[in-house]
Design goal:
The protein is of the alpha/beta class. The chain has two domains: 197 residues, von Willebrand factor, type A domain (Rossmann fold, 3-Layer(aba) Sandwich), CATH 3.40.50.410; 134 residues, no CATH class. The protein contains eleven helices and six strands.
Length: 419
């Protein structure tokens, strides 16, 4: 090879080496196991391709966590109630106050998701030893269940408190998450009976503690043995103990808005069209009628509770959906008009049978519009009632309400809910 040819060859080799240096270095940085095929280097970017602008060091990417809402705190409360004859005053008062208690619990910040369960107890030899209803976030269902409790039997002491407490601890569907606030309110006037069975009072007090369930106790009357047992379980589970009058010390609080709210509540209960089999429709209509017949104070507290838990306690929030929820697999077409298209003819509410498809849709829309107007009215009245109560609280507070809220506040603070 002559000198001119040799120079041309050396120059070409040098140029090729400089062009391939970057990808060669990239490939050499990737370790390759013996026998493995080396990964291909990414293709070089052509100078004509535009690259995305680099983020300036001072810019911060939006935090993804800010878009995720904090989980709503949960509160589970079970009332374990002595339903013997001597407890009739408190039991009837509790029926009137259940919405008031729930409404006050709903005032927590952040607003908690509340579930309530019920256990009634008497003693061996009475009409029943226990009756229980599982935890539910449908307060209308809770009220309907509470209405089934009637005071009777008893006439002697002690009562089967151990079984009432034991069933509350072991047979209800408590959330097992420790972040959920779990509380029992044990209310009665007689000490635990001792029976040869699996419902020993102290055993179930310990089981409550193991399951992180706080037992708050409310003694009615002045029985010393009851006080000893109630204080034992309250102290063991870090709960509260209080003593109230045998009647429960119920105080009715009337406001200028109660009568009108009762009318609106009754009207809302009538704006329903339940689907399902005949027996299911009958059951739902009975629930609606029970809501329509609430006493003025209870009706007003019910509307207030619905308002708070729906978020309409804030300016601009929607009005509460205050018609009774459907049960038994039924659908209230007024609350869910879109479901009309999929309802079988034999499960249509009687009000829609015999109408054309267009006639059914028109009827549902009519009731839905009427219901919306009523809910707006209810929300406004409830807000005015709450403002009035804030300025006109009675000097004497309802003893039962006050004691329940004392226990709720103490425990809720440990779960990040303030009152």
């Amino acid at each position: 090879m002559d000198l001119k040819s040799l120079s041309r060859a050396v120059l070409s080799a040098a140029l090729a080496t400089s062009l391939s240096a970057a990808p060669a270095l990239a490939e050499s940085a990737i370790p390759v196991r013996p026998g493995a095929v080396a990964p291909k280097a990414p293709p070089a970017v052509k100078p004509s391709q535009e690259q995305p602008p680099a983020v300036k060091p001072t810019q911060e990417a939006p935090a993804q966590d800010a878009k995720v809402k904090a989980p709503r705190p949960e509160i589970e409360v079970v009332f374990v109630l002595d339903t013997t004859g001597s407890m009739s005053g408190l039991l009837e008062g509790a029926k009137a106050k259940i919405y008031s208690i729930a409404s006050r619990i709903a005032q927590g910040r952040p607003t908690p998701h509340l579930k309530v369960g019920l256990v009634a107890y008497r003693d061996v030899g009475d009409d029943y030893v226990t009756k229980r209803f599982d935890l539910s976030d449908d307060l209308d269902t809770v009220f309907a269940n509470l209405r089934r409790f009637e005071a009777g039997g008893g006439g002697d002491t002690p009562e089967h408190v151990g079984r009432g407490l034991g069933e509350a601890v072991s047979k209800l569907s408590w959330n097992q998450d420790r972040s959920v606030m779990k509380a029992i309110f044990l209310v009665g006037d007689a000490p635990p009976a001792k029976h040869n069975d699996d419902w020993d009072f102290k055993h179930w007090a310990k089981r409550a503690r193991e399951q992180h369930i706080v037992v708050n106790t409310v003694r009615c009357g002045s029985d010393e043995e009851t006080q000893t047992a109630w204080k034992y379980v309250a102290k063991l589970t870090d709960g509260t103990f209080d003593s109230i009058d045998q009647s429960g010390g119920m105080v009715a609080v009337a406001t200028p808005y109660d009568a009108e709210l009762a009318k609106v509540n009754s009207a809302l209960a009538s704006k329903t069209l339940y689907t399902g089999k005949a027996e299911v429709q009958t059951a739902n209509k009975a629930r609606a009628e029970a809501m329509a017949e609430l006493a003025p104070e209870a009706a007003a507290e019910r509307i207030s509770y619905m308002r708070k838990t729906s978020g309409s306690g804030s300016p601009g929030a929607p009005a509460p959906s205050s018609a009774p929820k459907a049960v038994g697999g039924a659908v209230d077409l007024v609350s869910a008009p879109a479901a009309l298209a999929s309802v079988r003819d034999d499960e249509l509410p009687s009000e829609l049978k015999g109408l054309s498809v267009e006639g059914r849709a028109k009827k549902v829309k009519q009731l839905a519009d009427e219901k919306k107007d009523l809910e707006t009215q209810a929300s406004k009245l409830a807000a005015e009632r709450e403002a009035w109560l804030a300025k006109n609280r009675p000097e004497k507070e309802d003893a039962f309400d006050a004691n329940v809220m004392k226990g709720v506040k103490a425990q809720a603070a440990r779960h990040g809910v303030a009152y």
